Amino acid sequence: MKISRSKLIAIITGFISVIICIVYLLLITVFDFRSFLNDQIISHSPNMAAVFVEISLPR
Q1: Per-residue pLDDT tens for 17-46?
Q2: From CA 6, how far away is CA 1, in angstroms rounded?
């Protein structure tokens, strides 16, 4: 079976576009999941406190 050059280019281009779509959907899924995690981290109880420590090095 012989495939013409234009058909081969069309098939390769189709595969590349499908791969780009899959990568795009995976990135959107990851970033959407991260926003869900950020919302969970931010919405802790209001009784939380932050502790800051300053370390001074001797000169």
Answers
A1: 999 999 999 988 887 777 666 666 666 556
A2: 15
The answer to whether residue 58 is domain-embedded is no
- DSSP state for residue 46 in the 8-state scheme: T
| 45: containing domain | 1-52
Q: What is the pTM of this model?
A: 0.54
**Domains contained in the chain, number:** 1
Cα(13)–Cα(7) distance, integer angstroms? 10
Q: Which residues contact 11 (CB under 8 A, 6 or more apart)?
A: 3
Q: Tokens at residue 49, please?
A: 């406190």
Phi-psi region of 26 (alpha: psi -120 to 50; beta: other; left: phi over 0): alpha
Which tokens is 10 given? 């069309």
In-domain check, residue 11: yes
